[in-house]
Protein 1
Amino acid sequence: MFKAAIRVNKITTVAQLRGSSLHAQRHDITGKARVREGAEPGFGLAWSKAENDRDYLAAFRAHKAELKAGERKGAPIALQALCVVSPEWVEKAGDLHDPDNPHNRQLFDQAKAWAESWAGEGAVFGSRLDLDEKGGAVVDLMIAPVRTSRGKPVISTNKAMGEVKALTGERNEYSALQTSWADWCRDTLDAGIVRGTRKEITRRQHLSPETYGAVMDKARESLSEPSQKLVEQVKVADLSEDATQTLSDLLTLKVEINRHKALGRDYEPPESGQRLDDVYEGLSNNPWTVINAVRHGAQRIYDTAGRLGLSIMSYWGDDYEAGRDLFPNLSDRMHLGAVLAKCGDFMARAEQMVKHVLNPDVPKYDLRSLWPQEAYGQVERHEINLGLVVPQQEHSITDRRGVEIELDGEDKDRDVGIARDTGHSI
C-alpha cells in the first residue's frame, strides 16, 4: 500500500515568488544544502509559463497576461502545493532520481492535471519535480486560480479552495485538498494509493517558499507511521547517568529544532511557566528575580546546548559544521543555530526590558553590553541563511557637498513577553 499527501502554502507577495525562484534555481543557501552529493544542482523535471522553467515570478506575470487576470488587494496571489506520494511507488518502476522513470513522469504530469481539475484549466503556471535531492516523489506546483468577479477575471485562491471543500465534504479546505489529491492518485496512478495519515497541514500564509524544504520533509513523514524503534530501544537500554543526561539534552534540542522548522520567524523560546505575581512578591530593588523568571525557558535551552558543547559562537560562521556528530543533517544544525540566537537574544532583551520597567528613569541598556553579548544581530543572520527574511539593502544619501551619508536603522525593541498586568503568565 502506498500513500499520498499534500501540503499547501498561500503566497501573498511578489517577494515570495522571487524567493521561490531562487530556491528552484538553487541560488539560496537552503536550496544548495538540499542537493545530494554527486547530483547536478537543479536536475529534475520542470515546466512553467516563462522562458526559464524555474523563474516563477516571470511565469506568474505571463500567467496574468495570458488570462487577463487582476489581483484582489490584500488577497493571496497564488498557492504553492507540494504533491507527494510514497517514494516506494516511484521506485517500483525504476530509480527514484531517474527522469525517465515512467512513474516520475506520471507523477509530474498528473499533479498538474489534478490541480487544474479544480483550480481551472491553465491555473498552474509552474511545476517542478526535483531529482537532485536525497528524497523524491514530490511535485512542487505554483497555482493561481482565476474566477470571475463583477464581470472581470481575478485571481481567487479562496474561492477555488472553497469549491474543493464543497466537492469532498471535508470540514476545511486543506483536508479537502488532501482527500482530492489522494483520490486522484488512486484513479490515475495506482489503485493501491491511499490518503496519508490525517495531520494538521501548515496554514501559515507567510511561509517563505524558498524554505519549503522543511515542509516537504513533513509531507514525506506523513506517508509513514511513526517509528517506535527508538522508544523500544530506550526502554531496554541500560543507560548510565551521563548517557541519560546526554540523551535528554539531545531530545530537548531536537524538539526546539523541529519547533523552529515549523514556526520559522514566529518561533519563540519556551515559556517559563511562572506568573508575574509570583515573582514580584518580595522583589525589593533586585531585578534579577524577575529577569531570571522571564528568561528561564530560553536559558534552559541555552544551557542544554552548552552541556553538549554548543553555543551561539559555534555558529558564528556560515558553515554550520559544529555539532555534526550530534545532528548529522545540515538543516537541523542551521535551525539549531537560529534557536540559540533567538534564545540568546531573548535573554539579553529580557534583562534590558525588566530593568527599564522597574527603573524607567534610567536609559535602556545597550543590548550589545548584555549577556550573551554575542547574540546581538545574530537572529537576522540565521533567518537570512534559512531564507526566512530577505537581506536588507544598506541605504545612504548624499549631502549638499556630495558626501555620502549612511543611514543607520534604529534598533527597535522586540516584545519579550513581559506582561504589564500581573494576571498574565510569562
Protein 2
Amino acid sequence: MTTHFDPAAFRSVRDDRGLSRMKLAVQIDVHADTIVRYERGIAVPSVAALCRAADALGCPVGEFFTTDDADVRAAA
C-alpha cells in the first residue's frame, strides 16, 4: 500500500476552510507561490510545513494524503 501527498486534498481542505493561499502561506511561513506549487503537485511540502498547515487548517495531517487503490487490490 502506497500513501502519498495528495495536492487535490490539500487544496480541498484549504478551500473548505475558506482560507486564501496568501493567508495560509503567512500562517505556515512559506511564500504564497509555494502553496500554488503544493496544490498543483509541482512541489511536496516538508513534514514541518505539513504539520503547520494541519494546525492552521484545524485538521489531521492525514487529510493531505491518499492511498493507491491498486496497491490495496493487489494485497487482497
Protein 3
Amino acid sequence: MWRSCAPSWAPPPVPVAFTLGARDVRAAGLAHCRRPPLPTGPVPLGSVAAPALHYPLGDGTDPAAWTALKALTEHLRTGGG
C-alpha cells in the first residue's frame, strides 16, 4: 500500500569528508597523501605503522566541497608511493 506525505524541500547532498584507508595511503604514498590541495591537512586515523587519513571538506552546506573533493581525488590519483 502506498502512502503519500506532504512535500518538503531537501537541499542537494554536499560531501563533508573523505577518508582514505591505510592500503590506499600506502599505495599513493604517505608523504603525498599528507599534502592535499586543501586549506587544512588530513587527520590521521589508526596506527602509526599503517595510518588511514581523514580529509574534512566542510559542514555539508557549501557546494564548493564538491570542487575540493574533485581536487583531492585527482591529487591522490597522481600519487604512487
Protein 4
Amino acid sequence: MNAPTKIVAADGWIAHDGGECPLPYETLIHVRFRNGIEERKAHFAGFWATGLCDAWRHQGPRDWHIVAYRLVPVAPVVNLAARLDRVAEARRAAA
C-alpha cells in the first residue's frame, strides 16, 4: 500500500498529528483540540488553516492544535423546482 492509511475510530474521529491540512479546504468537519475541546459547529477544513495560528500545522497556542477531525455528514440537495414539477405532473395525470 503506497498511501498512508488513516485510522478512523468507531465514533468517526480521525487522528491528526500536525502538518498540512489533510482534506480539501471546502470539506465540512468537526475538530478536536489538544485540550480536549471538540468544536461541534461545522467549519470548512480551510477555516483552521488560516493566518499565523494554523491549527493543522500545530502553530499558535498548544492547547488549540487539532489532534483529530471528523467529517460532517451533508444532506443531499433537493432540486425543489424539479420535484414540484413532477408532483404537478402526477396530479394532472391522476385527474
